[in-house]
Write a structure and sequence with these properties.
Elements: E1 2-6, H1 9-14, H2 25-28, H3 35-38, H4 46-55, E2 65-69, H5 75-83, E3 88-93, H6 96-105, E4 111-115, E5 131-134, E6 143-147, H7 156-172, H8 184-196, E7 200-206, E8 230-233, E9 236-239, H9 243-252, E10 255-261, H10 272-279, H11 286-300, E11 301-308
Parallel strand pairs: 2-3, 2-5, 3-4, 5-7
Antiparallel strand pairs: 1-6, 7-11, 8-9, 10-11
Helix pairs in contact: 4-5, 7-8, 8-9, 10-11
């Protein structure tokens, strides 16, 4: 099978509107009067709800150094530092525009900002961190996209990741079907984090394996495609994530894996407003359309929480 390499680097390095138009779940819950907050059982921003969820799995008082990769506007980490001000944080991003946004959001906090590509970092540079956070961004990493043999790309980046594909297949016995797209960059990032010995790792993104409960199937429509699927966005493409591959890789590194969907820590308040919005094939208002998309994302996004050695 032949592949071409899809990357988003040029977009994030040079586009000054990065994320301004993209309504991530974290961004959707930032405004205090967001209609998305009204459909949840807890009226608080994303970072606070994620913090309490993770703190039930491992104690933040025992953590010192946190690395957030691709931290968007900095909202998630601002919530973390409000609840755990003792943390020493490094924000790592390739986007100069987003790093400036993070600096503004996290001013006067104990934060270091690095304009670096995590894929270019040595394992030794990652070894002093306790926790890694990669929220809603795994689809930004390089993807090997399956194509016909005559379309084979012959260049250094593609060949590098083809070698990585062989490496993951042989070292970790990953079954990577030859006719499907491969989240090769996400696998490489996770492999490096595990080799660096992070005690805890949190990852999340749109999943190609996510499922719906039977009660919602009449109202929300998405299928588990099993293979990572293309998401066409402004000036770039991203790909959904096959979390079973990441789970298998983490388990090979002796990590305990907790896997689920955003709905686990962002539970719905199934009010009449929510039920009405979900029942409509065509929403009558902007708020109803936002609620439909938001509930869709609560099930479409998966997460992994990885705990080293099953602590």
């Amino acid at each position: 099978m032949s592949y071409y390499l899809n990357t988003t680097d040029e977009y994030y390095l040079h586009d000054k509107d990065s994320l301004n138009w993209e309504l991530t779940v974290c961004n959707a819950l930032q405004p205090e009067k967001s209609p998305c907050r009204k459909v949840l059982q807890t009226d608080s921003p994303f970072g606070c709800q994620l913090f309490y969820f993770l703190n039930d799995l491992f104690d933040f008082t025992g953590l010192k150094n946190i690395l957030e990769v691709g931290g968007g506007f900095g909202y998630l980490m601002r919530d973390f530092l409000t609840l755990a001000p003792h943390l020493r944080v490094t924000m790592l991003d390739i986007s100069p525009y987003l790093l400036e946004k993070q600096k503004s959001c996290l001013a006067d906090r104990n934060v270091v900002f690095l304009k670096r590509d995590i894929l270019s970092m040595k394992i030794s540079e990652l070894q002093h961190y306790d926790l890694a956070i990669l929220n809603e961004n795994l689809g930004d990493f390089p993807t090997l996209v399956a194509q016909s043999p005559e379309g084979q790309s012959d260049n250094f980046p593609t060949n590098h990741y083809l070698d990585k594909l062989t490496y993951f297949q042989q070292k970790y016995h990953l079954t990577l079907p030859p006719k499907e797209n491969i989240n090769i960059g996400a696998l490489e990032v996770l492999d490096n984090l595990c080799l660096a010995g992070f005690r805890y790792i949190y990852l999340s993104e749109h999943s190609c394996e996510a499922t719906l409960p039977p009660s919602l199937k009449p109202y929300i429509h998405f299928a588990s495609t099993i293979t990572p699927e293309r998401i066409s966005l402004k000036k770039h493409d991203e790909y959904t994530i096959k979390f079973s591959h990441l789970q298998q890789l983490a388990q090979a590194h002796n990590y305990k894996v907790i896997r689920g969907q955003f709905i686990d820590f962002l539970p719905l308040n199934c009010s009449d407003r929510v039920r009405t919005a979900l029942r409509l094939s065509t929403p009558f208002s902007d708020e109803q359309e936002i609620i439909q998309q938001f509930v869709y994302d609560l099930y479409k996004y998966e997460y992994l929480v990885l705990i080293k050695g099953g602590e």
